[in-house]
Structure formats: structure tokens, C-alpha cells
Amino acid sequence: MSDSILEEIFIKRSQQKKKTSPLNYKERWFVLTQEKIAYYDYDPDKGKRKGLRGSVDLEKIKCVETVQPEPNAPQERIQKPRRSLKAMSLTKNNSSVFALPFLPQIIYDEGPLYIFAKSEDIRNQWIKKLKEMVSFNKDLLQKYHPCYWMDGVWLCCQQEVKQAMGCKVLDNKNGKNKTPFGLKSETINNQTSEKPVRPLPPQPPEPAAPSVGMTVIAEYPYTPMTPQDLELRKDEEYTILEMSDPNWWRARDKYGAEGYIPSNYVVEAENGLERFDWYCKNMNRSQAEKLLKTENKDGGFLVRDSSKAGKYTVSLFTKGGAETGGSCRHYNICTTPSGQFYLAEKHNFSSIPELINYHQHNAAGMVSRLKYIVTNRARPPSTAGLGYGVWEIDPRHLTFIKELGTGQFGVVKYGKWQGQHDVAIKMIKEGSMSEEEFIEEAKIMMKLRHENLVQLYGVCTKQRPIYIVTEFLSNGCLLTYLREGLKQHPTPVQLLEMCKDVSEGMAYLETQQYIHRDLAARNCLVDGNGTIKVTDFGLSRYVLDDEYTSSAGSKFPVRWSPPEVLLYCKFSSKSDIWAYGVLMWEVYTLGRLPYERLNNTEIVEQVSRGLRLYRPQLANEKVYSIMTSCWFDKADERPTFEQLAVTVQDVLYDLQ
Ligand code: ADP
Ligand code: MG
User: Fold this and answer.
1) Which residues of this UniProt protein bind ATP (predicted)?
2) Per the residue annotation, which of 229, 305, 501, 518 is the catalytic one?
3) Confidence at 379, pLDDT banded by 50, 70, 90
4) Which ligand is nearest to the CA of 456?
């Protein structure tokens, strides 16, 4: 057994693991060693320690603090432990020894452990030592509950969920705090010492900036939508002539024809992998598995970006035993110190295409050779508008196919543009939108383009009702998808990938200094691959409905709003961050209503006083700490979306 560092007799409060279990207080012999705090039965008559009653591993400790009496604590509450202590000490010892309760609390994964020390000195000695010993623990808390958890409620903030995030920010006491946001933890803890934060994964080398005159290769075919556009034929080369619009470049083909092309359909000829059909750039692990399983071909494979930045992974499907329905394997492409690539030892190649070519013929250590290329290139990405410079769409080019649902502005339909392009059409109910202002704004919105934002294609404004035409996502609204659409129980990777998608779309909006104002699961959509895209950004400014626009209105997104919005209507990217935390919570509760049991008035009141959403069962401490960092009272202490995207990616990496 390890040597003891400290030993002491304390009174331990029972932990009330069930809400209704009665409280009791027992004298225990506590022993602190390098690994744990163990507590034993104590025989006061003989002054001896007896059987082991329990222990807490030091590495599980998240916080060591003193307990404070709650505000306006009734005398009875302050007395309570004292009375019990007296009762306890009737056994033999001088009761005055325990006359004053000096309470340390030790928080670990089963909740707080409260112990009473004989004197302030002993309490301070233990707290100091323990803090020192846990200072490099993972998952140290940033916020804690200064008062008791008693009879199903935190006496400091009245929250009724034991896992509820703390209501008080720790000052520089909780050791060297490690949070997902190194910088944040420094500001909170006001410390600048070294932090044991894992370094960020290396960033992939920045691709050379594309420039006029360069040669590009078409990754997708593009049929001109306006006379100004130029046709793209897959795999052919084009020269770029002008790039003043980031979404539409002017180009020349090899026959000398010139026109505008969607910039996201081409890739610089020099640029490595994009030219190959097996390379699925923005595909994550779950999507790769889904696609490979759908194709259902033995030896089906693709290459994707690894969750480790700058690295690549080969995902390979094999049918294996017929009864299993096949399985996916993921092989990281490794590099040797001299910069060669390999999948299986001893078969090194100087480029990834050469390596893939070799393994298309040789399994060499893998479950199968790479037999069939599986690609997501079947469907080209969205263009920013339906042709260069087009934002007014001719309604005669739209065919309505079916109704998708009804929203704030009225009916939304699925249809085709020019008989072939899938689109969603919002038919704006008259009187529901300030149309003139929106039409002006639409020109700006059209320019926003990101894989995790629902693309605005254009508007029909020459008739009433006006239409908003956007990209169509076949799996519909994220909230419904979470509640009903997930066929199997989602994996931790899947849930976090959803959050990652949203964080990346939002990080792009943040760089454009564009505030969403109504970020929530109901305003995200899911495409056929399970990718999440954010929609309806900025639209709330054009809603004509006081119930929706006034923070006191019944339709105002109170449950997604931070205190500064609820109290002063102060919207910012930081209020979007708060909403993002709530959205993560929706994801991890599979679509529950935040603060289910409270009405809007109660939420405003309680959230301003420090109430926060509890940790969903599916969220581990790391994930929850990301959520809670979005809910810091002070807006400027919340992370940016860019930081969030990196952190989420980092946690994803740990999961895989
Ligand atoms: P609003 O924002 O006007 O309140 P919504 O965007 O919520 O309306 O649209 C209502 C419903 O229509 C959504 O819940 C969703 O199911 C469906 N929907 C809206 N836009 C799309 C789209 N682009 N692709 C697929 N389904 C959509
Ligand atoms: Mg909406």
C-alpha cells in the first residue's frame, strides 16, 4: 500500500446519492496517499482505524473548495452539522473538538464529498495539499457550487439537478486549471503559468493563394445557367481570367470560350488530391461509413481528411461474414521521417496517388485491396446563386413538387429549378416580412457560401407572395432528425460531428461578421449524407411579428438567449455562441426542449441569476465543458466559433 501523506479524523456527510435519502454524519478516518483519499471506520474508544468504507481516486477529483453557508442561511442550517457533530462526538471525545464546522468539499465524478474538519488549520492544510495534488487533473471545474447540495437542490443557486454546472466561477484556487480554451482559463484564473493543455494538431500547409492566370481542373461538370456562364467539363483544364467575385470566376477553356464558372467547382491543377475521384475532402468518419455501406461493395474505398489535421485516412468496406452485413475499416496514411507515405509497413511511396494505386492491386496488410472507388462527387456542391450575377429568379423556371412544412413566414415547398436542380422555396406569407429591407439584404446573403450554411440561391420579388429560393436538404430539420430521424442510437462521434458542422458554418459567419440571431436546432437542416447546415441566418430581423421580435414575446427564442439579450437585447457573435451551447445541448439530449419545466418568464429570471442547463447523459465532461463555456455570464469570456471549431475537432480526435 502507498504511504500516507496526511491522516485525519473527519466527520463525513453522507452523499445523498438519491434525492430522498436522509442525511447522516459519520466519523471517519481519512488517509491521503499519492493515488487516493481513503476513509475508514473509526473506533473512538480504541482510537483505531477499522474497515475501509470508501475512497476517491485523486485523478477523478475536479475541484477542492470550502463550503460556504448559503445566502440568508437559516440558523438551523448553520447549526445542522454542528448538532450532528455533537451527537457523533458523544461517543467519547471532547465534544468541543468538533464545535465548529470547517467544511472542505471535494468534487469528483459522483458529486461533492463534504467533510468537517476539527479546526480551520486542519481544513486549510488538507485543502492546500489536495489542490496541489490535483492541479494537473483533467476536467477541473471552472465553476462550482459554493453551498451545499441538500435534499435535491443546490442551496446557492436553487438548481435541482445535481450535475448542474456550478454557479460561481473559481478564482485562482483550483490548481492550474485546464479548460478547453487555454486562454479563457487564464483569464478566469488570472494565471499565466504553463498550462498542461495538449498542443493543437499541426495545421495543414496553407495552399498557395489562387491567382489570375493559374490553371485549374474541373472537379465537377457545370451547365451554364446564364449566357454569361461557361460550361465546365469534368477533369478538363481552364485558365482563370478574373477573380473579383469570390464565388464566380471568369475563365477560359481550351477552345478559347470565356465565361463565369462557380469557383468551388474547380481546383488548382497543381493541387494534389482533389483531382482524384477517390478523394472525398470534407467527409468525416460517419459519413464515409454511411456512403460505403450504401454502396455495399466489397473492397469499396475512399480517401478522406483524417480527424488529425493535415493527415489522410483510407476508409475501406468489406463484406466479410455475410451475416454481418459488412464492416468499415479506417487506415491512417502514415509518413516516414523522410516524407514517404505508407499504409502497411515496408511499402513506401513518394505520393499518396502512387500509394493508392499500389493498394488498388495489393491488399498488403489490409483486409482487402482497394477494389472500387466510392465517391461523393455524384452530386456537385451548391453554387452561390443560380448563375453568375443572378439573384432574381424567374418563377416560371420553378416547378413545385411537394410541401415540406410551414414556418414563421408560411409554407416551404420542395421543387426543381429549370426542371433539374433541387431547390427549397419559401413562399413568404404577405404581411409576415419587411420585404423591401429583406430584398436588399438578400444580395449580401447570396454571397455567403460555406458547406455548412444552407445556400441562398435567389429570390422572386416581382410577384406576391415573394419567394426565397434556397438549397434543398433531403433530411429536413435537425430538430426533427434528432427526435425521430436517427435510425439507430447515435454514436458519440456522430453527435460531435453534428456539432462540428454547425461550429464550422458559424465560424464562417463570424469571419463575415454576420450575426445569426436565431441559432437553434430548428434552424439547422440535414442533407442526404448527414451533414448539418445552418439556415435562416439574419432572417429574424425581417420578421413582422411582435411575438417573435420582442424579447417579451411568446415566440422569442428565450431558451437560446444569453442574459445580455434577455435583459438589453444585445445581439453579437457572442450571443450566437450562447445559442450554440444550447444547440449542442439539444443535440446531446436528442432534441429535448431546453429548460423543459420552466416558462419564458421563469427562464429570464433564473438564467440571469446563474441557472444553466444540466449535463445531458450522452455528453461526457469534456463535451459538457464546451457547452458550459458558451454560457459564461460575461459575453467576452465565451470562446469564438473559431476556437470552438478547433476544440470540437480536438475532442473528436480523442474519440477516434
Ligand atoms: P421559417 O424559417 O420560415 O420559420 P422553416 O425554415 O422552419 O421556416 O421551414 C419549415 C420547415 O420546412 C422546416 O422545418 C423544414 O422541415 C422544411 N424546410 C425548410 N427549408 C428547407 C430546406 N432548405 N430543405 C429541406 N427542408 C426544408
Ligand atoms: Mg426557421
Assistant:
1) 426
2) 518
3) confident
4) 1
